[in-house]
């Protein structure tokens, strides 16, 4: 069974669900909860729920939050290969969720910023497996060298590689050069525009296909599209009542990749991604509650 190795951040989300608009300089009533987060950890969790064999590589602090992350992810079926940082705490992200389910995030990388090449287990680079990079670790200068080393080692071992750009606000002009040679890139609509300067997602995907073998652009409630530069496939998202969009893109990536490593074609993989994302937005938090 093909294994997906996910590389990137493990976080604790401090989620504030607002009852109304933010009142700058004053009080905005909210319900606050602590939940597991981090793009890589979330994607690994959804991959496991989708039935994939998955290992997570990253870094946590020597604290209760780090131990809880290992326990929670292990219970979901994720093989955790997380280095422990004795100097930095487990990463934390403050997430504001508006009444319509949209979220705004304020991350503190913590231990994730210390990710190093020494944290990459040799036994996870195996021909036939797949490496998925959650892009925050690639966008952060301190962890970028380790991510680039992982991509080089994966390609040398005969693994396929995918990258999620993660954040339109953090993307730079040099990003495409950093991920040159990647098999699949998975931006959302805003990230695709940031990378290409093209606002139409299908046209932006076509531009990206000049650099990547496959491109998938997620479109929120409008579903997702795939292209390899010659063909184009679109899939609509299931209609659901949105509770919280936090982690929807991570769930999509989990569903898509789990289908692809089982041999699914583009349309089936897009449908699997959209179905898992639809499941994710109907419940609070960025991760599945259990694998059952």
What would you call the structural class?
Answer: alpha/beta
Q: Could you give the order of strands across the largest sheet?
A: 5-4-1-8-9-10-11-12-13
CATH class of the domain at 3-9 and 38-58 and 77-82 and 115-280: Alpha Beta
Q: Gyration radius, to the nearest Å? A: 18 Å
* Average pLDDT over all residues: 92
How does CATH name the architecture of the domain at 3-9 and 38-58 and 77-82 and 115-280?
3-Layer(aba) Sandwich
The level of helicity is 25-40%
What is the beta-strand fraction? 25-35%
Q: Which blocks of ≥5 consecutive residues have pLDDT under 50?
A: none
Give the SSE order as H and E letters: EEEHEHEEEEHHEHEHHEEEHH
What's the CATH superfamily of the domain at 3-9 and 38-58 and 77-82 and 115-280, by name?
Ribokinase
């Amino acid at each position: 069974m093909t294994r997906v190795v996910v590389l990137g951040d493990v976080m604790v989300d401090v989620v504030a669900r607002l009852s109304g608009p933010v009142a700058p300089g004053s009080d905005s009533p909210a319900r606050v909860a602590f939940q597991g987060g981090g793009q890589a950890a979330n994607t690994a969790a959804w991959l496991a729920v989708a039935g994939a064999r998955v290992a997570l590589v990253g870094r946590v602090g020597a604290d209760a939050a780090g131990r809880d992350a290992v326990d929670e992810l292990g219970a979901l079926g994720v093989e955790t290969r997380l280095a422990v940082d004795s100097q930095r705490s487990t990463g934390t992200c403050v997430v504001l969720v508006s009444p319509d389910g949209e979220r705004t995030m304020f991350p503190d990388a913590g231990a994730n910023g210390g990710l190093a090449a020494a944290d990459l287990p040799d036994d996870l680079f195996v021909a036939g497996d797949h490496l998925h990079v959650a892009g925050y670790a690639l966008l952060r200068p301190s962890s970028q060298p380790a991510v680039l080393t992982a991509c080089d080692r994966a390609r040398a071992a005969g693994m396929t590689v995918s990258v999620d750009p993660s954040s339109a606000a953090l993307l730079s002009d040099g990003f495409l050069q950093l991920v040159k040679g990647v098999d699949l890139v998975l931006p959302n609509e805003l990230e695709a525009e940031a990378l290409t300067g093209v606002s139409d997602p299908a046209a932006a995907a076509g531009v990206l296909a000049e650099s990547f073998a496959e491109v998938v652009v997620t479109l929120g409630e409008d579903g997702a599209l795939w292209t390899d530069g010659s063909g184009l496939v679109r899939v609509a998202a299931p209609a659901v009542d949105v509770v919280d969009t936090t982690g929807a893109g991570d769930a999509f990536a989990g569903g898509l990749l789990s289908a692809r490593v089982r041999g699914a074609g583009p349309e089936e993989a897009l449908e699997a991604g959209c179905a898992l994302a639809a499941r994710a937005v109907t419940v609070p938090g960025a991760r599945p509650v259990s694998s059952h």
